[in-house]
Amino acid sequence: MRHGKECGAGAGRGDHEEDHEGAALTKEPARILVVGGGYVGLYTALHLQREARRGEAEIVVVNPEAYMTYQPFLPEAAAGSISPRHVVVPLRRTLGDCEIVVGEATAVDHAARTATVKTLAAEEEGTGTIDIPYDELVLAPGSVSRALPVPGLADHGIGFKTVEEAIGLRNHVLEQMDIASSTRDPQVRDAALTFVFVGGGYAGVEALAELEDMARYAARYYHNLRPDDLKFVLVEATDRILPEVGEEMGRYAVRELRGRNIDVRLGTRLDSCENRIAVLSDGSRLPTRTLVWTAGVKPHPVLAATGLPLTERGRLKCTAELRIEGVEHAWSAGDAAAVPDLTAEQPGTECAPNAQHAVRQARVLAGNVLASLRGKPLQEYRHRYVGSVASLGLHKGVAQVYGKKLKGYPAWFMHRAYHLSRVPTVNRKARILAEWCLAGLFKREIVSLGSLEHPRAEFELAAGTGRHPEAS
């Protein structure tokens, strides 16, 4: 890889040059840098490597991890219905014709056509960062969790955006049940069995519903715990949950959750969670050892370090062709981009930052990048939103698709079928389907592997330098 090599100046990469005898030299492939390996990054690179002609493009993908996480399956991974390895897609295997750089882009100098990237090797070498040159930039770093300045949140909050957080939360919930089962202190027991989820969007509702299913099932295997001993609380600042599935299905979801003895607090905010006490805006004080924060996301910080045009919300201003507005050779889509919705009735409407749009935008974006290199017309992105599906736990769900409303088992089945069709690679589809079939035949796994988060603890104890992993 030619890190640090200048490109894009003078005749430029991808232009024909002539020697002193006038003979045409071979056209150098255009370097396409894809920042981000999520929905947009993975699918864009996948379409580029499939559709680019031999020698036409060199594709480089930069991502902090060597895999893409299929986030709609995180709740099921947390509940133990799917193995964590099967909700991630290895970039090196899937993008065999691309160069994968595991690192985090910290800045982009589009005038110089270079991206600054922090890699593990650069940190070990003490060089800090490397510069990667490019001809075409696809900026799709996605979003990060939006943490508000709530006292105690940084110390006690648990996120739910990565596979590591999902598995960590599963282990944590089961460990709290172990604590409750073995303590004689009623205050410790109550705090251990109280689980507070903040945020009534997809992530919060699906995570709560799946983990509540799993925890109440696991309770039957504890001699001194009953399912009714567990207290799950959902805190939402607005007056509804799951707005994507419509008002009617949102109200049904609230009734369904409350029917399962889940305390749903609408129009309520988290004011503080210091000292492991969740203080809500309605005056409630809930001692809890588990506070899951899923109250929204914000654009990736690297966008502010690019000098590219941004909206008031910090997303990249894009055209319907998925070009960054007013900038040549720069493209974006997904969570990072504000893309006009050409199918909306109201002018100025932007496409929702969700997977349904991201996957389809990636296909159009890849085609437009190649069309630009070939001097052909670009295609506008158009997709009418077909609806949404959401899981409320095993065999339960809500959906609104093409104006039709579904609930219960049909909605749950549609949720699984849709996301199985969307998860990348046949390999992952087959593994997930096999796990679902096995889960229908055998009982749930209720084992906590929390010690995986401290893999050296046992050795440190043996060496006399640490504590037992269960004590940490």
By CATH's scheme, which homologous superfamily of the largest domain applies? FAD/NAD(P)-binding domain
Q: Specify the helix fraction band.
A: 25-40%
CATH fold name of the largest domain, please?
A: FAD/NAD(P)-binding domain
Mean pLDDT: 89
Q: What amount of the residues lies in strands?
A: 15-25%
Which outline best applies? globular
Walk across the major sheet and give the strand order.
Answer: 7-6-5-2-1-8-20
Rg result:
24 Å
Poorly predicted runs of 5 or more residues: 1-25
Count of the separate structural domains: 2
Biased composition (Basic and acidic residues): 13-22
Protein name: NAD(P)/FAD-dependent oxidoreductase
Family: Belongs to the NADH dehydrogenase family.
Keywords: FAD, Flavoprotein, NAD, Oxidoreductase
Outline of the structure:
This protein is of the alpha/beta class and 472 residues long.
Explain this structure.
The chain folds into two domains: about 30-145 and about 300-375, FAD/NAD(P)-binding domain, CATH 3.50.50.60; about 155-295, FAD/NAD(P)-binding domain (3-Layer(bba) Sandwich). Helix content is about 30%, strand content about 20%. The chain contains 13 helices and 24 strands. The chain has a seven-stranded mixed sheet. A five-stranded parallel sheet has the order 10-17-11-12-13. β12 (about 230-235), α9 and β13 (about 265) form a beta-alpha-beta unit. α1 runs parallel beside α10 and α6 (about 165-180) runs parallel beside α8 (about 200-220). The two termini are about 45 Å apart.
